[in-house]
DNA sequence: TAGTAATATAGTTATGTAGTTATATCAATG
DNA sequence: CATTGATATAACTACATAACTATATTACTA
């Protein structure tokens, strides 16, 4: 695992692709769907039941996620199963969670140093 | 460094916070600004010159980035300097870049296996 | 082949936000 | 204290998109 850190050389196109990926993950419902899928493959119906919105809405977001290669689609008879295709998204979530946690902790410590 | 993988237990609020962070990074101009700042602290004027848009637009995005704790703000006389406050964003970019690269490579290999 | 179930698409509305121009704030300087 | 320079805010426009309802597609089944 080597560090790259050569972002200075990112072309505008590459930058747009990265932004696109972030924007894809920047919707609570999509994150929610991905989170449910982390336990394993699910049908559209199951997903619709798990997250609380309409089935067409779920289908729309699933389509986006598939278009960008984040989930895979498998049809079996009448029902369609989606699954995580790119597990790196969970790595991303972990990093963000860590960052947010650190942020809240530092705010907490500031409060402690004032009140404690 | 331990693996968490307990996303099942994420509350809707936490999920919204994570999505918010992704959305913040999901704008090419903001990513561009952050990329420029990776070299070190810069004034608003310098940033405006580096990325190509109006100064008010830059100020607006800088404000968002600061609000969410991604950059810090330091005023010296008339000019204001911004700097990266949360380097984890570059880690995020690295992960995304790796994922995208893998995706293109696999498509490339598919093409090769068809045409080659 | 008619009917039903599962998923996808179309069309619409409402909301968010990126970018622009004009203006305000604020600090230095004459 | 008027002016200039640096940054921030306000008001606006244009566009993207999330969610909804209605409908279409597709596969199974009686």
| Element-level helix/strand string of chain A | HHEHHEEH
| Quaternary state of the chains | homodimer
Q: What gyration radius of chain A follows from the Cα positions, in whole Å?
A: 18 Å
Strand order of the largest sheet of chain A: 1-3-2
N-to-C terminal Cα separation of chain A, in Å? 43 Å
Overall geometric form of chain A? globular
List the helices and strands and how they pair.
The structure is a homodimer of 116-residue chains.
Chain A: H1 12-25, H2 28-37, E1 42-43, H3 44-50, H4 55-67, E2 71-76, E3 79-84, H5 88-115
Antiparallel strand pairs in A: 1-3, 2-3
The structure holds a DNA duplex (30 and 30 nucleotides).
Description:
Two copies of one chain form a homodimer. Chain A is globular, with a radius of gyration of 18 Å. The model of chain A is unreliable at 1-7 (pLDDT under 50). The first copy, chain A, has a three-stranded antiparallel sheet with strand order 1-3-2. With 116 residues, the first copy, chain A, is of the alpha+beta class. In chain A, a hairpin with a 2-residue loop joins strand 2 (71-76) and strand 3. Helices cover 62% and strands 12% of the residues of chain A. The A-B interface holds A 3-5, 7-8, 10, 12, 14-28, 30-32, 35, 38-39, 69, 86, 88-100, 103 and B 3-5, 7-8, 10, 12, 14-28, 30-32, 35, 38-39, 69, 86, 88-100, 103. The first copy, chain A, binds a DNA duplex (30 and 30 nucleotides) through helix 4.
């Amino acid at each position: 695992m080597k560090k790259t850190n050569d972002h200075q050389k990112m072309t505008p196109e590459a930058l747009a692709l990265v932004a696109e990926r972030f924007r894809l993950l920047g919707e609570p419902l999509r994150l929610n769907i991905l989170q449910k899928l982390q336990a394993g493959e699910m049908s559209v119906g199951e997903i619709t039941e798990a997250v609380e919105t309409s089935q067409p809405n779920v289908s729309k977001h699933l389509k986006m996620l598939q278009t960008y290669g984040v989930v895979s689609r498998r049809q079996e008879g009448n029902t369609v199963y989606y699954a995580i295709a790119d597990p790196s998204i969970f790595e991303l979530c972990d990093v963000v969670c860590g960052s947010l946690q650190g942020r809240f902790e530092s705010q907490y410590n500031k409060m402690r140093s004032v009140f404690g």
